[in-house]
Amino acid sequence: MTLSLPQSLHTREGQPVACRRLLGEGGQGRVFEVTVDGAAHALKLYHPHMAPAAQRGMIERAVQGGPPSAHFLWPTHVVAGPGDAFGYLMPLRPARFRSVPDLVTRRVTSTFPAILTAAAELASAFHDLHAKGLAYCDISWGNVFLDPQSGEVLVCDNDNVDVDGAATATVLGTPRFMAPEIVRGEVGPSVRTDRFSLAVLLFQMLFNGHPLDGAREAKVRSLDGPALELLYGTRPIYVFDPKDASNRPVPGIHDNVLIFRKIWPSSLQRLFATAFTDGLTQPGRRPTEGEWRDALFATRDLLHPCGACARPNALEVDALRAGDAGACWSCGGSVGPVTWIELGRGALALPLGRALFPHHLGARHDFGAPAAQVEAHPADARRRGLRNLGAGAWTITRPDGALVPVPPGRAAALEPGFALDFGRVRGHVHRTR
What we know:
Strand order of the largest sheet: 1-2-3-4-6-5
Number of helices: 12
Radius of gyration: 25 Å
Structural class: alpha+beta
Largest sheet: 6 strands, antiparallel, barrel
Helix content: 25-40%
CATH architecture of the largest domain: Orthogonal Bundle
Number of domains: 3
CATH superfamily of the largest domain: Transferase(Phosphotransferase) domain 1
């Protein structure tokens, strides 16, 4: 039987809304592709019993307040119709965006830089949301989409966003993503519980597994209500808990988690350990969105291809400072030699093609147009240079103290011992064995 499309819908401002086709259906309602004044939108139309006054109030506040950032497919207009029809318009999701489950189950392929970019952009998106005094209330892999090539992200299902601590949320979260205190029925959603759910989502993206699913979960025959409450509410144990080895990943079952444990650097490992040890019982100890964002961008900055197999490796700053890039996680061969630059408190590996953004040169979190790019020397492919793509000049200080200007469009040699003055920051070039 063909589904009849809703008729006689209009925005609160009186604009006609024409339904074109059904995009999907869930427990709360249906989502349609629609046009308003010739422009395409998505419409979520609630089932009559799923739009109580509290839900309608949340939608109206969201429309009035506007999106926290461009990462959100945010409600733009309230829609009404015959009887008690109620819904809202939001931007359509472009086809290039895929779900996180698609990524985790390998239905789509991506790259380490794109995955780290997506994870960092998610942390940034929820930072912007929480800065407005709002809690998302249902962070999970079902509400996030990413471009597997670029790492751009979009957050959907924003109709459950509520004022932090308002205790009026109509949704408590998604099983296996909810904070333990919500699973136990002690509290409602908040920014602090969002931070737990975000950590779970980031772990899923980076490890292709769940941070609490190890030997204990593998022994459970059926993940029914009591099992879910035990594993994720009353007695959760991190799979890499440094003090409790009872829930370690099981080879043959949790191989992805074991492999990625070897890949990601200690800076990320420490944040996950904090989120899922102290953070299980102390919500105030959970890493903030800013901490995740900085650690994820720093990890992306230190990706470098293995010198033997070309697989990307996430390097450790301390190892670089000791002059050794270490062994490849994949083939065991030497990753080095690695040319890298220390920039204030950060560090950046400099493989061929690496772009530097204003973020790296003092304008934090500005990843607009590249400010520089690593290129091969025209006369010797083994040597590297850094092309100035910005509007201002740089200065190189050589080991002998000589100063060399690098005007826009020119390239600076990347030789150990050279110092580059970019204006806001100064960088020192190094090379490992």
